[in-house]
Structures are given as C-alpha cells and as structure tokens.
Design a protein that fits this description.
By secondary structure, this protein is an alpha/beta fold. It has helices spanning 23-29, 126-143, 167-176, 180-184, 207-219, 272-277, 329-339, 377-382, 426-430, and strands spanning 2-4, 17-20, 35-40, 56-58, 68-73, 84-86, 99-101, 105-110, 116-118, 144-153, 222-230, 247-254, 311-313, 344-345, 354-363, 385-394, 403-404, 407-410, 437-441.
Length: 446
C-alpha cells in the first residue's frame, strides 16, 4: 500500500506500506521507539541529480516568504560537460549506447532567512550535507527502539569540483554577495561552521566517516561494526594511479549497549579445512594452553556454523527499472535476520530471545596459576576451556497476549524494489516463523 505524506497522521505507524513523501517530514510524524531495525542508504554527496521533484527546503524560517537566489548547476554525472550521459543499460525505454540528456539541477539560498532550496546530496558544501544527514539520523534515533539496530550503507567520492563548492565561487560571493549570501560564503546556513573548500583534489572526501564520527560524538550512537560490502562484479575503472573501488562500508549503529541481535540466525557453514582441523592439536607449546591450537582435541565447531564476520562478498543485483543503486537481496537478508525480532509481545513489547543452556565444561588447558587481571577465578579453579551451549527454546514474557513481528524501516528509499517488500516472499527473509512488518518512506515527492 502506498500512503501519501499528507495522509499520514501524527503518531501513526502504517505497516507493510510505502510512504511517499519527504523523509524528515515523515519521520517526525512516526511514534518514538517504534522501529526495530533500520536498513538504508543516503544519496552520496555530489554524485547524482534525482530530479526537481527531489528538491525541498532545508533550514531557515518556516514562516518566511522566501526570496530565492536560484542557480542552475551542471549535473554531477555530466563529467565531460557535454550535457549528456550514457543511458543505463536497464533504464526503461532506453537501450545501452544511447545518450541521456542532462539539464542540470536548481538550488539556492533564501536572501531573507538563509534557508537552502535543493536536494539531499547536492548541497554546495560537505558540511551542509552532513548537517542534513544529522537531522535525519536524529529522527531515526528517536523512532528506533532501545533494542534496535541501524544499518547505514554509505560510500564516498573523490574531491574534484563538487557542485557549487569551487573555491573561487565562495571567494567571489564573500566579496560581492548581497548581504546574507556573502556571509553564507564564510559559514553555512546554520551559522556554525566554516565551509570546507580545502579538500585536496583527487583526495577521498571521507563523507561517510565524517558523518559517522559526528553521529557517535554528537548523537551518542554506538558504532558496533563497519561491514565491508565487497562487490565481486564491481564497476571497472579507467583510473591509472590508484586501485579500483570494489567495496562500500555498511555502518552498524545502536542506541543502547544492550540490544536485540540474533547471531545464530546468520551463521555460515564452516570451511572444510576448519572442520578437518577439529579434534586435532598442533603446535601446542608446553605451559601455554591453547597457544597455537586451532581447535583443541575436545572442542567442536559451533553446530550452526561460524560468525560470518564483517567482510561480505555479495555481487550487485540487476534491476529492470530506472534506479541506479539497488540493494542485493543477499545484502539485506542477514541484516534483518540478525537485527529484527521474529516475535515481540503485543502487550509489553519485549522481543523473544533464544534460550541457551550451558552444558558440561570442556577443558582445553591446564589450571592457570598467575595472579593477574587476565586470569579469571574459574581458570585458576577449573582450568582453561569452555562450556558447551545448547538452544532449548525461546523466552516467554508470560503476558499471554500473543506475538507480532518486528518493524523494518528504510527511510531513504528512492525505489522500492527488492523482494523484502513483497508479502508473498517476505517469509524467505525471516524464515518460516512470523513475517517482518515493512515500513518505508521515500526522500522526495515525484
């Protein structure tokens, strides 16, 4: 179901729906602590023009009768200045080899209040772009449950001549700008930071890490992982003085130290050579229990497989519609499986967790005699080893009110394309128990 922004009521949480509207406006209407998992990716700074329909007003006085100073700037994909770009192979109505006409994009400031009119990702400065993302992340933190997790896919670009960020332009506006426009050339529209114009050409802008650091420092979010999404079928590059970019980072963020995470749901099979090593001891050095042992002779690998780690090799996935950056299903699937509860109490809101019982203690080394902080009392008493773990069921809060599945939100979805949003296949993402409730809203009205 598609819901228009104006039809969404304050505090409403529509499920299995697409909300068509401005991300910030929609997020501010959603109830606090109502979302279990966020999986999203913002428009990268200075990369693409998504059309006039993506433009909106940022900052300034909402009651101002804006007087805009609008400029038309070169489309960031028109890198050769020809006014055209190779049409995507799968863009509807266009065959590979044809050209896509590029008309440039409109943006500008209000001379009265300093508001900026434009689209997310085409701000005249990196600082302003990050400020806009922080507004969105601030709302995401509010709507996220204390047990929730955010997966934020965010790539980077290289400093050449980002749209409107040329040093000579800012110097000219600082000298000749009309009042506020001149002041804006020295500081951003929020009046708090100097515009960054000194990133060396050919240098990575680090837009993603600059933003994430501010999320940690200013919003209090906790960065748990930087997942490397390696693309085996990555785009080739003609560059000759560096290596081809073949990955993008996915940042895993939480708002509380204790959050819901089901690692057992996404474990992957052990490699045959690792299984073959089980039951063997090699290179054990006298006096150093477990020093060089891969698997002690009593130890067995986890029956559900190993932790998948933070480097995921997942090819990009073709999509037969007008969209540049499509999530592969295999990229999103483990995120939702691991971070979106399958069953949540309808009354108290507590998610069910696996019940794991400790079995017998398997001793893999001798008793430790050193009295240091690194040696536990158990190691001194029982020796080095581990307890066997067995899953025996799922927790039950006792409310007897029934269960509902968790809520997944994609707040920056330009194209709702992967099968997670299709009811008939959603069970493939969550297994054969309850289905996740999908909540999405788009960045811009079209």
């Amino acid at each position: 179901m598609i819901i228009e922004e104006g039809d969404l009521k304050e505090g409403e949480l529509p499920l299995n729906s697409i909300i068509h509207g401005n991300t910030l406006t929609v997020l501010k209407k959603l109830p606090s602590e109502s979302v279990d998992c966020v999986v999203t990716s913002p428009p990268y700074w200075g990369l693409r023009d998504y059309g006039e329909g993506a433009n909106t007003v940022w900052g300034g006085d909402p009651n101002c009768e804006h007087e805009w100073v609008i400029t038309i700037k070169k489309d960031p994909m028109d890198r050769e200045g020809t006014g055209t770009h190779d049409a995507p192979r799968d863009r509807e109505g266009m065959k590979h080899g044809k050209k896509w006409e590029m008309k440039g994009f409109r943006e500008g400031f209000c001379k009265k209040c300093g508001a900026w009119y434009g689209q997310l990702g085409l701000e005249p400065s990196l600082d302003m772009y990050i400020e806009h993302l922080l507004e969105i992340m601030r709302e995401l933190k509010r709507v996220l449950k204390k047990t929730g997790v955010i997966f934020w896919n965010h790539g980077d670009n290289y400093s050449t001549s980002p749209p409107g960020n040329k040093k000579e332009n800012w110097e000219k506006w600082a000298k000749e700008g009309d009042g506020l426009i001149g002041r804006l050339a020295k500081r951003n529209s929020y009046g708090s930071a100097v515009m960054k114009t000194d990133i060396p050409q050919k240098c990575m802008c680090l837009q993603n890490f600059r933003f994430i650091i501010r999320c940690v420092d200013e919003l209090g979010l906790i960065l748990r992982n930087v997942i490397i999404w390696h693309k085996p079928n990555h785009m080739p590059s003609s560059v000759k003085d560096r290596f081809t970019s073949a990955y993008e980072p996915v940042f895993m963020l939480v708002k509380s130290k204790k959050y819901w995470f089901d690692l057992d749901a996404v474990r992957v099979p052990q490699k045959p050579e690792s299984l073959a090593m089980a039951g063997k001891q090699r290179g054990r050095k006298e006096g150093y229990p477990g020093n060089w042992a891969t698997f002690p002779k009593e130890q067995k690998p986890h029956p559900l497989g190993k932790n998948p780690g933070d480097v995921w090799a997942i090819p990009t996935q073709p999509f037969p519609e007008a969209h540049f950056a499509v999530y592969p299903e295999k990229l999103v699937e483990p995120m939702i499986k691991a971070a979106c509860p399958q069953e949540i109490c309808k009354k108290c809101g507590k998610p069910r967790e696996r019940i794991v019982e400790r079995g017998e203690f398997v001793r893999t080394g001798g008793k430790r005699v050193k009295d240091t902080p690194a040696v536990s009392e158990r190691q001194k008493r029982e020796g080095t080893g581990y307890h066997q773990l067995f899953m025996v069921g799922w927790t039950d809060c006792g409310c007897n009110a029934g269960w509902e599945s968790g809520v997944v939100l994609d707040p920056l979805s330009w194209q709702w394309n992967n099968r997670i949003s299709r009811p008939e296949t959603r069970k493939e993402i969550r297994g054969n128990r309850n289905q996740p409730r999908i909540l999405r809203d788009g960045v811009a009205k079209n």
